[in-house]
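The pair is quoted verbatim as follows:
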Amino acid sequence: MAMQHTPLLMSALIERGARVAPNEEIVTATANGTRRQSYRETRARAHQLAHALADAGIGVGDVVGTFMWNGSRHLEAYHACAGMGAVLHTLNIRLGTKDLEYIVNHAGDRVIIADADVLPLLEPLKDVMPTVERVVVATEDGFEGWSTSLPRAVDYEAFIAGRPTRYEWPEIDENSPLGLCYTSGTTGDPKGVEYEHRSQYLHTLTECLADSMGLSGADTVLGIVPMFHAMGWGIPWAALMLGCKQVMPHRFMDPARLLDLLVSERVTISAGVPTIWQGVKAAVEANPDAYDLSALERLTCGGSAPPPSLIRWYWDALGVEMVQGWGMTETSPLATLSRRVMKRSQLSISEDEQFENVAKAGQLMPGLELDIFDDDFNRLPHDGESVGEILIRGPWICSEYYRNPQPDKFHDGWLITGDVGKIDPEEYLIISDRSKDLVKSGGEWISSVDLENHIVALDGVAQACVVAQPHPRWDERPVALVVPDPGRQVSAEAILAHCATAFAKWQLPDDVLYVDSIPLTSTGKMDKKVVRAHLADQEYVLPDLRKLADSG
């Protein structure tokens, strides 16, 4: 029997939530509380936005930039652009002016929708954005009286007012572009990744699988990961499809406000980077009886690997499962996930063994291929010991960068991820490090991630960052930057002794430096590039007091 050929368009998914759960809430945090609207209202407003954009000359394939926090109006832009066939370009509000100028012009944004409170970050570009014809300004409490030097700026509510609440979504090719996301540009200019309707349709369905994030229409989702970062890990699309209650923190990202939202909105699942969950943990530990988190079931953690001690704390202290995910902008971003129990055989293993698996990057999502290769692109065995370059391919994996092919980042249809790791006999991926963050000492590799996770597990340590520093004899040696817990003191000797319980002497840091904070990238990861540059600027010389390498 022949089946109908229906193109896989996001417009077929994003209307479902409002259809099956029209009265469910979308909650946006504001300076004075929360602002609430239903899925029915959100769909109507998204259709009005589509009409307004069309009247402004935006059609299929035209690029619409957003410069916004996580909020209902940002969700309306997702909905409107996907439905009408425009390309949603989520601009990272944490990038510097130089990178923003490059990205806006490289993408060719014609309209930018911006939150009023971040207009000062966009205004330095007013004379260097020749493709931008209009800026639409969204306001929240305290910013109603905005003014700006940006060209042809109009208030969001005035822009959509009076427009029809129904827009007939066009049928376009399923391989048409849906969105543009740019990498943070750690080397050279940022690189654009184009997401197509077909790729995100498949990614959205996969994200909701029980052995994936297990999203359900019965969930209340607090999406902390920015909607400008890899499309919010795909959560906005999945939530629109399912009709689950959405809670959006807007600019209020401090642990106290996040905890207030988690408690008051009875959140069941949330997603963010490790630094977010470390901050929430510290706040709960400081006042353990203040927060009723009984509704919270699971957290998804990505961007960088969470320390195993953090994963275990959430389970032991709160009964909350932390789901570790691995991916990148180029993988849309979901590639692997690790849950406490992912196979029937794991029901009978001990809890400690289950958490050993959660500490790994996880198992491959259905539909993708992933493997590890040596320098000559020979496949390596899945023995849990062989370390190689991680390559991946599949229907939602980038095959080239937008208007910037860079063939050295791809091999025979595979994306070269820049991560190195191993795969164990149970088919779990274990990330060793970013290739550029490994420490090569005396011809041997040292994983900065493994050292960081071990140091953070020591009581009294809040954060740890390990980077390589040049060494005249050993090429490179590891140095650890440590942020102690407030009011705590942990000696360098104690940290080194703790590391010595799991690492050989030659793998131990040559020095431990105490800092108040560790610089973060625009996506909330530790910015090791900045750390290395700072150490170089200070002409930091490795001490040879302990002679750890010689004694190892």
